[in-house]
Amino acid sequence: MPKREIDNGSIVPGETYRVAILSAEAVDEERDSQSQSRSNTSESTTQSPPVKQGDKRTLSIESIGDQGDGIAKVERGYVVIVPGARPGDEVEVEIQNARENVAFAEVIEAVSSNTDKAD
């Protein structure tokens, strides 16, 4: 990954991302399409994150990240990282920091946890 992507916060070190490798021809076609799109409208087509700082949500933790934090997904596959949560936990969280591609949240309350189901 280019260092500038990490420096500007688009990429978080240690996280997993999906990438595509495109031919130069496909990239040129995409640029032409984007250029034409921009000339047809003055509005930005960039979608904003589906959460914002201060939002409260109930999330189901789906997996665990490389750093041991819980990972949940919300609208459009947007990732929310929840320290201290484990796969199978259902937690109420407050969003602490929302970026373009990932949000970080703090657990307010455990609705149910994986340890509750162990009996």
TrEMBL record:
<feature type="domain" description="TRAM">
    <location>
        <begin position="50"/>
        <end position="109"/>
    </location>
</feature>
<dbReference type="Pfam" id="PF01938">
    <property type="entry name" value="TRAM"/>
</dbReference>
<protein>
    <recommendedName>
        <fullName>TRAM domain-containing protein</fullName>
    </recommendedName>
</protein>
<dbReference type="InterPro" id="IPR002792">
    <property type="entry name" value="TRAM_dom"/>
</dbReference>
<dbReference type="InterPro" id="IPR012340">
    <property type="entry name" value="NA-bd_OB-fold"/>
</dbReference>
<feature type="region of interest" description="Disordered">
    <location>
        <begin position="25"/>
        <end position="64"/>
    </location>
</feature>
<feature type="compositionally biased region" description="Low complexity">
    <location>
        <begin position="34"/>
        <end position="48"/>
    </location>
</feature>
